[in-house]
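sanity check this chain:
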Amino acid sequence: MLLIDHIKEFCKVEFEEVNLNFNEIEIQVSKENIMPMIVFLKDDPNCLFDQLTDLTAIDYLKKNNRFLLVYQLLSVSTNNRIRLVSYLSEDDTVLSLSKIFPSSIWAEREIWDMFGIFVDDHPDLRRILTDYGFQGHPLRKDFPLTGNVEVNYDSDVRRVVYKPVSLVQDFREFDFSSPWGATLEEKSIKKQKS
C-alpha cells in the first residue's frame, strides 16, 4: 500500500486535502489539527516521520487567511519526506511542537520574529534574527521597505543606538544618454528621418 493511501485510510485526524506535489505528499489541515496530524505522522509505524527538517511561513497579504504555515518532515528510516500546510489568519496562534521536536524551538522563534505568528506554549518565544527592540515583522508583505529606524554602533557612547531613517539622497530622474554622443536609439531615429 502506498503511503498516501495509508494516510487517507488510517489517519483519524481530519484533513482538508492530501496531494502529491513534486513526488512529495502534501497534507493541508486546519490549525487545530496540526498537532494531532504531526503526532500521527511521527508515531504511526508505516509513517515514522521522526525529524522536523523545516518550519516556515508564506505571507499572502490579500487573502483572509494570509499566512501559510509549512512544516517539512523526514522519515530517516524510510527516506520519505512529507509537507504539512495550514492557513492562518493574522490573529491566529499555533501550538509549539517543542515537546515533540525540540528542533522546532528556533524555527518557531523565527516565524514569530519574521512574520508575527504567535506560538502558544513555546518555552522561549523571543526575537531571534532582529534586535529585541525591533518594531514590526520584516517578512510580512506590508512591512515598509525602508524600515523605521537605523541601527548603528556609536563608539563615543559605546553602545548600539537607534536613529530615524533619513534618506540622504532625493529620488532623481537619470539621464541615460551617452556622454560620447547620441545613443544607439537616437542614431537610428536620425537615420530614419534622413
